[in-house]
Amino acid sequence: MGLLTELRDSISRVTERLFSASEPKRIGIYGPPNAGKTTLANRIARDWTGDAVGPESHIPHETRRARRKENVTIERNGRTVTIDVVDTPGVTTKVDYNEFLEHDMEKDDAIRRSREATEGVAEAMHWLREDVDGVIYVLDSSTDPFTQVNTMLIGIIESQELPVLILANKVDLEDSNIQRISNAFPQHETIPLSALEGDNMDEVYDKIAEYFG
Questions:
Q1: DSSP bridge partners of 136
Q2: Which end of the chain has fewer beta carbons closer than 10 Å to its terminal beta carbon, N or C?
Q3: Rounded to 5 degrees, what are φ and ψ at 3?
Q4: Distance (Å, rounded) from C-alpha 134 to C-alpha 27?
Q5: Residues of the chain predicted below pLDDT 70
Q6: What CA–CA distances, in Å, run from 106 to 40, 57, 94, 103, 113?
Q7: Would you state the CATH architecture of domain 24-212?
C-alpha cells in the first residue's frame, strides 16, 4: 500500500510539473513613466497576435492600471515561448498633479489622475513581488538611468531572482546614449531598440525567447 501511495504521489508531482511548465509565463514590463513601456507592449502584441494592449500617450502615467495580453507566442531560432505580457504603470517615488496641469488638464482631472497613478505604482509593485515570472525593464536611453527608482527596482528584481532583460529604448532620439545604461547596470546585458520605429526588434525577440523560454 505504501509503494502504491509513493508511486501515485510521484506521478502527481511529474504531472504538476508538466502542466506548470506549459502555462504561459507572466512577463512584466517595468520602468519609469514615459520610457515607452506601452509602446513596446503594443509592438510585441501586434507583431505576434495582431492586437494592441492599450493606448499610448506622451502624457506621463497614461497607464495607471496593469494591463495584460495573454498567450503571446514568440518563435525565434528554434525556440518557442508563450508569455502573458503585463504592461505595468510607470514606477516613481512621487506623482505630482502639477505634471498633468502642464498638459492642459483641469485641476480636478489632474488631481484624479495623480491619485490613480499613485495607486498604479502600488499595483505595479504588487505584481513585481507576487505575480510575475520575469521582467522586461524599459529605460529611455535619452535620459539618465542612474536614479533611485531604477536602482531600487533592479535591486528588487535581483532579490526575487527573476530573469530580467534590460532594454535601452528610444534609440531613434538624437540624445540617445546606450552606453550610459550599460554603465549604470553592468551586471546585465543591455539591448538597444526603438519600440516606436520597430528598430532592432528581431534581437529583442531573440532575447525574450532566450531569457524566458
A1: 29, 165
A2: N
A3: -65, -40
A4: 5
A5: 1-22, 54-65, 93-104, 110-111, 113-114, 116-118, 120-121
A6: 29, 18, 20, 9, 11
A7: 3-Layer(aba) Sandwich (3.40)
Domain map of the chain by residue range?
Answer: 24-212
At 141-182, the pLDDT tens digits run 999 999 998 999 999 999 999 999 999 999 999 999 999 999
Q: What is the DSSP-derived secondary structure letter of residue 7?
A: H
CB–CB of 45/53 below 8 Å? yes
Q: For residues 65 and 87, what is the distance between their CA atoms, to the nearest angstrom?
A: 8
> Phi, psi (5° rounding) for residue 52?
-90, 165
Nearest CA-CA partner of 39 in 20, 55, 17: 55
In the numeric block, which cell numbers belong to residue 79?
525556440
Instruction: Please report, for the chain, how many H helices and E strands are present, in that order.
Output: 7, 6
Q: Residue 84 — left, alpha, or beta (φ > 0 → left; ψ -120 to 50 → alpha)?
A: beta
Angstrom distance (rounded) from CA 65 to CA 63: 6
